[in-house]
Amino acid sequence: MSDEANVAEVLIDVEPANKTFRVRVDQETTVADLVKAIIERCEADGVSVERWARDRVGHENVSLVLMRKGAGNVALPPTTEFGRIVPVVEPDERFSLDATAIVG
Amino acid sequence: MAEDRQDRTRRFFGSRALARLARSHVLVIGAGAIGNEVAKNLALVGVGRLTLVDPDTVEASNLNRCIFFRESDIGRKKVRVARRALKAAAPGMELAVHARPIQEAPDAAWDADVVALCVDNEFARYYVNARLLGERRRVPVVNGAMGRTWAEASVLVPGQTACLVCLWSEDYHRSILGEEVRRKCDEFFQETRVRFPAISVLTSVAGALASTEVVKLLAHLPDELPPALGKRIRYDVRRHDCLVHDIMPNPQCVDAMCRKRRSP
Question: CB of B52 within 8 A of CB of B39?
């Protein structure tokens, strides 16, 4: 997302919902904001992202992670603001929701 | 005799890298399924010194995927059972085992070139991360874990790359600390933990990924065998997808020491 473009639409692949969401983000939107919005949207559709994640990683506490797929594969920390991601986020760039493994 | 044992390893790495492996010390935290695999591979590849730390005892439910454990070992400390098998596999390796939580391991255990983290609880990861961030030298850590259908290993140098908790949210951080407090206060907590489905093939893959990265770090052959520094490798058995991705360091990491060591 360039400085001139304050808002961009990105695509988020969400496996438990079996769909891709188109989401509008601005410079200050954080990864945590986006993940929260996806969880709420899925819940409204009757899909529990957290139950999916618990089943995937086998633990009550799950850490959801947003993966940037467009420019290499990068796991983004929750506090990351979209306006600070380098290289800049392109319109329609693809991301995915993921869960981190815990069991050793 | 020792040369014969490592003949094929020497042909793979070369004499100088093999000597580096023989001079190396690896701290393996966790002697469960992945810890068994990692310790086995490091012993066979010629690592000179290994410290294994785990407070748990062998249970019947471990026997489906832990190469070192037998029916007769149920009730015995995992690290002591592993010691017997490791000594047989690599008699020349210097081996120390500690049947206690990593928080109570002696300082000598931390005098390691690489830490292999093979635990099943996030508080241990949090503790190890804090400990490594507090070290003056930067010590690489390879974190092995499994999901339902995948195995993964991340290769991090806390304070240089992302740390082990850079991807944690504040809420997740709080829940992990809360879980640890609850575990310490509730004597029945261990019995109420959910048992995750796990099979030997996945633990073998996870152990192979993690030990490969440990060996790459120790052999120090950056052109031929570059370690996946700052990355996570994930192998999913559903469609045999292998994904390698970067873990972005978090300037607002929940660990204050990570933030401090990262600041200019």
Answer: yes
Between CA A62 and CA A101 the distance in angstroms is 8
Counted residue by residue, chain A has a size of: 104
CATH number of A20's domain: 3.10.20.90
pLDDT digit string, tens, across residues B189-225: 555 556 788 999 999 999 999 999 999 999 999 999 9
Q: Which B residues in the span 159-218 are in contact with A, Cβ-Cβ below 8 Å?
A: 162, 166-170, 172, 175-176, 179, 194, 196-198, 206
- Rounded distance, CA A96 to CA A103, Å? 22
pLDDT at site A24 = 95
Residue B182: what pLDDT? 80
Smallest Cα–Cα separation from B173: which of A41, A93, A63? A63
Calculate how close chain A gets to B1, using CA atoms only, in Å. Answer: 35
Q: Does A36 touch chain B (CB under 8 A)?
A: no
Range of the domain at A72: 7-99
How many domains, in total, are found in chain A?
1
Q: For residue B74, which amino acid is it?
A: I
Q: Considering only alpha carbons, which residue of chain A is nearest residue B200?
A: A104
Res. B179 pLDDT band, cuts 50 70 90: confident
Q: Where are the domains of chain B?
A: 2-259
Least CB–CB distance from B248: residue in A63, A77, A102:
A77
Helix or strand (DSSP H, E) at B146? strand B141-146
Instruction: Judge contact between B91 and B48, C-beta under 8 A.
Output: no
For domain B2-259, the question of CATH label 3.55.30.10 is answered with: no
Residue B72 burial (C-beta neighbours within 10 Å; 0-12, 13-18, 19+): exposed
Cβ pair B230, B247 in contact under 8 A: yes
